[in-house]
Amino acid sequence: MKFSIQINEGPYQHQASDTAYQFAKAALAAGHEIFRIFFYHDGVNNGTRLAIPPQDDRNIVALWTALAKDNDLDMVICIAAAQRRGLMDADEAKRQGLDADNIAEGFRISGLGQLIEAGIEADRLVVFGA
Amino acid sequence: MSLLHTINKSPFESNTFDTCLGYALDGSTVLLIEDGVYAATTDTSAAEKIKNASSGVTFAVLGPDLQARGLEGKLADGIKVVDYEGFVNLVAENDSVQSWL
């Protein structure tokens, strides 16, 4: 079966990102396909490559990057939510005249249309949130 | 059409548990995750509501979240414990998922 996942909560805020990660891993292990993971609202903070959690804590951003790499996942960050919170990819930073970008490997920035498409194309859309 | 409802907040923190129970139809499943697992513990008003809910509604709780809170020994009757694989199966078995946030 084809799943899409939406994450509305930032890493370390509570538990939504962790639950979504464990769910995604279990879905892949069971042989399901993940069409897309869409990061919305504070969920966009899961995609910053500048996060340095303490060494004895899980690195949520790195976990997502690794999962995406191993399973060729499409991880999309909502552009409007990202811009409000200072998450930029190189192209967008350049367009805005900013001196830095901070998107982690495996994530890409795009619009809400990607969430709509994720809902249409997948058999199930599961929302994890604040 | 069967629906999977997920609840991620404690019933003592938020009213999503009560709202969900008001909407859950026979044939649907309510899965308690994250702080939602507190609704599955004995001697609480929430457990009483689960006991009195329609027999057509199935209740499940995410085991790892129950264990993380040290509540395995306080699980109320009539609630099925599932792991993440079971969570995935519930999503696949039901026609749609409603996350009460």
Task: Explain what you see.
- The complex is a heterodimer of chains A (130) and B (101).
- With 130 residues, chain A is of the alpha/beta class.
- A five-stranded parallel beta sheet of chain A has the order 4-3-2-1-5, sandwiched between helices.
- Chain A has five helices and five strands.
- In chain A, helix 1 packs parallel to helix 2 (60-71).
- Chain A is globular, with a radius of gyration of 14 Å.
- Chain A has one domain: DsrEFH-like (Hypothetical Protein Ychn, Chain: A, 3-Layer(aba) Sandwich).
- Chain B starts with a strand and ends with a strand.
- The mean pLDDT of chain B is 96.
- In chain B, 32% of the residues lie in helices and 22% in strands.
- Chain B has one domain (3-100): Hypothetical Protein Ychn, Chain: A (3-Layer(aba) Sandwich).
- Chain B is of the alpha/beta class.
- The chains are: A alpha/beta (130), B alpha/beta (101).
- Chain A binds chain B through residues 1, 3, 8, 14-16, 19, 22-23, 25-27, 29-30, 32, 124-130, and chain B through 6, 8, 33-35, 64-65, 83-85, 87-89, 91-92, 96-97, 99, 101.
List the helices and strands and how they pair.
The complex is a heterodimer of chains A (130) and B (101).
Chain A: E1 2-7, H1 16-29, E2 33-39, H2 60-71, E3 75-78, H3 79-84, H4 90-95, E4 107-110, H5 113-121, E5 124-128
Parallel strand pairs in A: 1-2, 1-5, 2-3, 3-4
Helix pairs in contact in A: 1-2
Chain B: E1 3-7, H1 16-23, E2 29-32, H2 45-52, E3 58-62, H3 63-68, E4 80-82, H4 84-93, E5 96-100
Parallel strand pairs in B: 1-2, 1-5, 2-3, 3-4
The percentage of residues in β strands of chain B lies in 15-25%
**How would a textbook summarize the main sheet of chain A?**
5 strands, parallel
CATH topology-level name of chain B = Hypothetical Protein Ychn, Chain: A
Give the class-level CATH name of chain A: Alpha Beta
Strand order of the largest sheet of chain A: 4-3-2-1-5
Radius of gyration of chain B: 12 Å
Estimate the global geometry of chain B from the Cα principal axes.
Answer: globular
Largest sheet of chain B: 5 strands, parallel
CATH class of chain B: Alpha Beta
Fraction of residues in β-strands of chain A: 15-25%
Q: Give the radius of gyration of chain A.
A: 14 Å
In the residues of chain A, how many domains can be counted?
1
How many strand elements of chain A? 5
> What's the CATH architecture name of chain B?
3-Layer(aba) Sandwich
End-to-end span of chain B in angstroms? 22 Å
Number of strands of chain B: 5
Please, how many helices of chain A?
5
| Largest beta sheet: strand ordering of chain B | 4-3-2-1-5
Looking at the structure, the CATH topology of chain A is: Hypothetical Protein Ychn, Chain: A
The separation of the N and C termini of chain A measures 26 Å
